[in-house]
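Dear colleague,

Thank you for sharing your sequence with our group. We've completed the structure prediction you requested, and as agreed, I am returning the results in plain text so they can be pasted directly into your records. Please verify that the sequence below matches your submission; if there's any discrepancy, let me know and we will rerun it promptly.
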Amino acid sequence: MELAKGATDPPRSKRRARGSLSGDEIVDIAERIVGEHGVAELSMSLVAKELNSGVTSIYWYFRSKDDLLQALADRVARQLYRGLPPIGDESWDFELMEYFLAYRDLIERVPVYRELITFRSELLFTRSIVAKTMFRRIEAGLELLVEAGLTPVQARQAYMSCSHYTSGFVILNHGHRRWTAGQDRGEQGGADEEHARRRARQLDNTEFRFGLNLIVNGICEEFGLTRGRRRPAASRHRGRAR
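Please find the predicted structure tokens below.
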């Protein structure tokens, strides 16, 4: 179809030059997309669209979507490690409970944590440049259980039971929140999803602690440990230094 006389093409926004981008800026956009829409929705073309740049400019910084996700995982791993509490001076069971309560709260508060831990955990724990640092924190938790009287194998079983419970609870609770938000929208024609999210969270804090406490009680029963036993002074010093 020919343009009317005197008409012109609609103005097109000028794409950003490759040199005007940065790797951090690209990761910022990827973090927002993953946090809002999930890992599955992340694509190089969508990142380019959000940045008003060409797709080839994104590939200049990251060779593939996996490379971009790896950079995002490295950022998340650093934040995750910094956000977790060090081992303190209290009894082994108190420290174990506090750690996993904090761990759950962290991955609940930041959606991108939940997405990567749920769907691409290998990026965090095997390929991340800070994986060794994170594993040292896990080793400190295992040492805590060994000091309490478990063998290394038993300590790993106990620790992983708490870890799997925490991750599974977060995933299931996230699904519950999405369902609740959908129900509210259907009943009220567009209810505030944040309200539904807060309402669901109010129901699960006590439930999560209750379940975690049952696991710790089971560890005691299975392996003959006593709750409330304070750690040796030398061990407490090592825990603070980590």
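Summary note from our side: Residues 173 and 204 are 8 Å apart (CA to CA).

Kind regards,
the structure core
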